[in-house]
Amino acid sequence: MSYALYIGQSFNEAGHAWLAGYGDEPSGHWLQVNPAREHPPGATISVGVTAEAALPGRMGNIPQARQTARYMGVNYSHYLGAPAPLINGGVNQHGVAVRDVWSPSRPELVAMTPPDQAGPNYSDLSRIVLERARTAREGVEIIGALIAQHGHCSYGGNSHLIADAREAWVVIEFAGGLGLWVAERLGPGSIRALRPGHIGVIPQEVGQDVLFPPHFIDTARRLGWHDAGAAFDVNKVFGDGRGRRPGVVWIEEEMRRRAERPGGLDLEDMIWAVSTPRLTGDSAGYGQIVPLVPESREMLRMMWHAPVGPVTAPLVPVFLGIDSVPPEYGRHRHLGRGESARFVDRVHEVTGADAISEVPQGVASTRSAVAVFKRLMHLAFQGGEDWVAELSAHWRVVERRLASELADIRRSAEILDAAGAPELARRLLTEHVETRLLRVLDEAEALATGYEARLRAGAGLNMTSEPRVPDQIW
């Protein structure tokens, strides 16, 4: 179950909003930057799910946009049978950021989902918004238009949190094959956590702060789930009826409390929100924080990235303008579906739920940042709360050092770009990001060696069938 957190700009002395979170998927993850592309007339993209998905459906093709934006995010290799590569979100060149979070529909909707459902799945929607949207509201409109034209493949209900420098929108897409979705606007004074996605009472007419398709309210009445004249509670009518979960209540209240301090919320607060052991553990496939800053230079848009859950890993700033991602942070074959039956030195053409992109042997021979940081995480977990706190404190110091460098690297890139040398600016950003990503990877290996030695000399490695993990409140 993924996690998203939006903080409106009113809570930040610097005057900008934040979008943060992570994805919970038991699969391989990798950081990827996708270039802007121009596509030929008639180009299409493959969307949907296969017959092997948790809620089966069929794959299909829909038209591709003529021009797609540059964007970056974290891809992963498997979730409930949806075909890889998958993405929960990221940020594009226009400053539109997206997070994807599970949002369970009511059981009757799940039961009525047709077995031949077709149309974009949750990941397809995230990727298409990043490719096409210039504002958060446009991202909502794109999702609505796609569902109306092509349908939607659901695994039981889903949501997206789409944000730009001005506003954010929570969008929930419901199971059932009825084309049901709803979106609620968040503004400068909003703090909203999704885990799962949740929308409560809304106006029953489309307006500036709420969007839904024309048949949304009528469908609820037709099915006998809503009485005319009653308040329309989205979660009660079309969702699981459980309201806001305890973890959501806790993190929203905690962030509001922190916002009362002089200066309001800052980067360290956002890092805490995605790294606290009360919310983050082994299931968090990565960590991500996007400062929603109005930016004149697309190459300087950025996000903070952790290759696994930030409870025991650092978040490192990554600029959209970089030319490449270090192979250590790219796609590796471990944890990819079906990889145990494949040879490393051969490319296998596969389709459907087993579809993968090629992973060169050179990449497979490098260290995997995910594997290194997962090893460090589980060594620290075996040492208990004190070790987790010790390791987290170490990475928080590293992050403060990384943050202190940003003003200089941004200024240097701006000077080069203004001087007519954007290629040198991109090279500078690429070398800066690569150096920092590899530096923390080296530190992680050294720390893991020390923790393993301490365990072996003391209590020993946990060889039982019960893993040691921090207690969480979700």
Question: Would you mind describing this structure in some detail?
Answer:
The structure is a single chain. The protein has 474 residues and is an alpha+beta fold. The chain has eleven helices and 20 strands. The protein has an eight-stranded antiparallel sheet, covered by helices on one side. Mean pLDDT is 93; it is low at 347-356.
Give a brief outline of the structure:
The chain has 474 residues and is of the alpha+beta class. The chain has 11 helices and 20 strands.
Keywords:
474 residues; 32% helix; single chain; 6-stranded antiparallel sheet; 8-stranded antiparallel sheet; alpha+beta
Q: What is the averaged pLDDT score?
A: 93
Helices, by number, come to 11
What about the largest sheet? 8 strands, antiparallel
Beta-strand content: 15-25%
Number of strands: 20
